[in-house]
Amino acid sequence: MASVLTDKHPCFSSEAQHQYARMHLPVAPQCNISCNYCSRKYDCVNESRPGVTSEVLSPAEAYAKFEKVKAAIPNLSVVGIAGPGDALADWNKTRETIELIKNTDPDVLFCLSTNGLLLPEYAPEIVELGVRHVTVTVNCTEPVIGAQIYGAVNYQGTRYTGAEGAEILLNNQQAGIRYLADHGVIVKVNIVMITMVNDRHIPTVVKKVKQLGASLTNIMPFLPAQGSVFSGLPQTNMHDVTAMRVACNVELKQMTHCRQCRADAIGLLSQDRNNEFRSCAATTLVEATESKPLPFANYYKVAVTSQAGKLVDLHFGQAEKFDIYQVNNNRYELVETRCLEKYCSGNEECDSEDKRREAIMTALSDCDAVLTMRIGYQAQKRLLKHGIMSVEYCYTVESGLYYAVEQLELKAAAV
Ligand SMILES: C[S@@+](CC[C@H](N)C(=O)[O-])C[C@H]1O[C@@H](n2cnc3c(N)ncnc32)[C@H](O)[C@@H]1O
Ligand code: SF4
């Protein structure tokens, strides 16, 4: 039977994702390990992926932001701490933030995300604080595989590398998951699927964490992050991720609706509103939208970022081609493919970069929406100035097109 705790948590329950909003409070910037896929140094405003945030807050600032968001989003059910580093590496700030909110709003569900290194130390306090959802990232169970994924593990004042460091991390993760599950905490395990590194080993991880008491796993595609050791590896194909989720679902419940959110995400999973609540945000995305006439004969034109045309599996900033579809709520047709330069070249400051980005906007300006796996705030804002809505989605192109139509119609109804 589904628990009331998971029923209201949009990340732990696919039913709750459409009804309940969550907010991530970025109060924990530090980390105690180095994952080779992680980069928190590259502060690109166009990025929308884990570890990215536009601000780091003190516990008091986080509390003030919570109050503001709660007033604006009454269906806010969950407050999570997902970095931008590790919730337990900055435990004092994490705990203080939770305590401040809990004292005034005892109904909020709290969750936190961790690599698990410090779970043996803090799991009893987590339980005592009343945190009932914890996400632990477990990418392998074998130290030799861990040695390829983790550059270093800093534990109790010593820096460990290779299989030695990985072994400490993996042992602590496993002990921590068992403790939490035995004490009534719902544990979700994130697994970053990295082709040729840990992909074949994932079913073993799922089996192990199930034995330890985890309730579900979330197999996520590896996203190459500029500035990370793995920046040159290819992004994991969504087709492979989906196949792995299906195979592992036989063993344990799988999360399939993860959006790999930013550390400051706010709102429903499908509609990140973090930009409305940034301390420096002068206008909202809605305010920035220019009106655009309704499309001819109720057909919308949607530009899709897809590697092979079947799945929405490409970041907007990485796309070099856009498939242009005409679509309404029961038909769609691919009308052309436009080859353009990449939006994100990594050369943020340069003047010609701005011109190039405007040229991309002009090339897409006849479209009503861009359907993409992920898109950053500045790129969304620029698209909206051209009257183009951005829709983040992570499954087939076909279902994504209908989802985009739904979003366009909702927007039209709200005007
Ligand atoms: C930024 S972390 C924050 C929580 C914590 N430090 C951890 O690693 O679990 C949130 C999630 O994003 C994942 N992640 C970070 N960088 C990633 C990347 N480049 N590709 C895919 N997943 C990534 C992490 O493994 C983790 O599951
Ligand atoms: S544990 Fe989390 S924050 Fe730390 S390096 Fe890994 S992904 Fe980044």
Helix/strand-derived category reads alpha/beta
- Helix and strand succession? HEEHEHEHEHEEHEHEHEEHEEEHEHEH
Major beta sheet, specifics? 8 strands, mixed
Number of helices: 12
Structural shape: globular
Calculate the mean pLDDT score and round it.
84
How many runs of DSSP E, i.e. beta strands? 16
Percent of residues in beta strands?
Answer: 15-25%
Number of folding domains? 2
Distance between the termini: 41 Å
Ligand inventory reads: S-adenosylmethionine, iron/sulfur cluster
CATH H-level name of the largest domain... which superfamily? Answer: Aldolase class I
Identify low-pLDDT runs.
42-47, 280-296
Radius of gyration: 21 Å
What oligomerization state is this entry in?
A: single chain
CATH class of the largest domain, anyone? Alpha Beta
> From the 3D coordinates, which CATH architecture of the largest domain would you assign?
Alpha-Beta Barrel
Helix fraction, binned, reads 25-40%
CATH fold category name of the largest domain: TIM Barrel
Strands of the widest sheet, in order across it, are 9-8-5-4-3-1-10-11
